[in-house]
Protein: Diaminopimelate epimerase
Amino acid sequence: MKLNFTKYQGTGNDFILVDDREQSFPQDISIIKNLCDRRFGIGADGLILIQDHPELDYRMIYFNSDGSQSLCGNGSRCGFAFAQSLNITREHATFETTDGIHKIKSENGIIHFQLFDVSEVNQLNDQEWFVNTGSPHHIVLNEDVAALDIVSNGRQIRNLPEYSGQNGTNVNFAQLLQNGVKLRTYERGVEDETLSCGTGATAVGIVAGKLGYKSPVSIQTKGGELSVSFKYENEKFIEIWLAGPAEKVFEGSVTI
Structure:
């Protein structure tokens, strides 16, 4: 089978995008793993299918590079850019993905993805937090994230027994700055550090909000800058938006 694809990246978080409106893509984990492999495949942090939806603008099905599924903030932004290129939608859309229905829009070349309200922000100790923004995120505050061994430290926390019931957790190491937050993330499903993580950036932005940072919060990832905006009302974070660029890298075809 010949598969046409387009590669997109959002602040270094890269994805294989497939027009699956005919629903012909074989959702086989081994195929997804092979396509995402950086040495023997196309190479990506994840694979995204864009499908028709009976009521909404489109459906987005997201797979991590190991074939597992989760909400992906940067992937949602890249999926929207791809849907625009297919003339499925224009400046704004409503679509269904892993955890439900979301709104998304484009303003001045920046794509804004709305996440669900967050009412639980759990402080574990002086330096650690847990927030679920559609995907689970363990957050560790650190004074010098550049010096950390992200893979070793992240993998240890990702596999803690308390997270076994939810297939582990993503792990974010955040350095609080005067003008924002510097972030490095170990992503479950990729099982490595990624250059950026949208739902992780959102979780860290929410913790920053708890610590007194004003919306929007600038999140500096290794792949570029993201922005997290929100309102905090009645002990709940509402109107949460993740904003950043989404860019086409290349397109091609491969036999699967």
